[in-house]
Amino acid sequence: MSDCSAASLPRVVVVEDNPGDVRLVEDGVAAAAELDLQIIKSGRAAIERLTSLDGGDQREHPDLILLDLNLPGRSGFDVLRAVRTETDFRDVPVVVVSSSRNRDDIARVYELSGNAYVTKPSDPDDYIEMIAAVVDFWVESANRSTPHG
Q1: Cα-atom radius of gyration of the chain, to the nearest Å?
Q2: Residue in 118, 113, 111, 110 with CA at minimum distance from that of residue 135
Q3: SS3 117
Q4: Is the dihedral of CA 19, 21, 27, 32 positive or negative?
Q5: How many angstroms separate the CA atoms of 148 and 126, rounded?
Q6: What is the pLDDT of residues 77-110, one digit of tens each?
Q7: Residue 17 to residue 46: CA distance in whole angstroms
Q8: Which numeric CATH code is attached to 8-143?
Q9: How far is 88 from 122, CA to CA, in rounded Å?
């Protein structure tokens, strides 16, 4: 195993309560890049964790947040609102990964300043490929020009 510190790797925070979806996200991330992956399993825990982080500490700064909408405790909408209004991470891309195809849900994500909305594929291989593509774009491409990474 490499002695490379997790602090030097791009950090992806995943807010997802379904263990099967967490496994698919882990597989998709592994296919895309070596990352510091943090899993948070409820909306309430995500808000508590993200609002408690010090935005000036580069070791804690996420490079990407992958967010489900249907979470225990607080909804993904609540988490997105908190990220955009109560944290030091207003610049961090938030990609909602949801099974909902409801146009009102999609519109609300963008109204709350979500960066992208993707629907969870039903096929596990497609799910893994979608996560790999999302991570590749938002971490490897989009974040190259941001000052925090």
Answers
A1: 14
A2: 118
A3: strand
A4: negative
A5: 31
A6: 999 999 999 998 888 999 999 999 999 999 999 9
A7: 11
A8: 3.40.50.2300
A9: 34
Which tokens go with 8? 């030097």
Tell me the three state secondary structure of residue 34.
coil
Domain boundaries, the chain: 8-143
Q: What residues pair up with 96 in beta bridges, in sequence order? A: 67, 117
- Identity of the amino acid at 115: N
Round to whole Å and give the CA distance between 98 and 36.
Answer: 22
Where do we find the tokens 């909305």? 117
Tokens of 59: 């070791």
Q: What pTM did the predictor assign? A: 0.88
* Closest to 119 in 3D by CA, of 104, 137, 131, 132: 131
Task: Tell me the residue type at 90.
Answer: R
Q: Which DSSP state fits 139? A: I
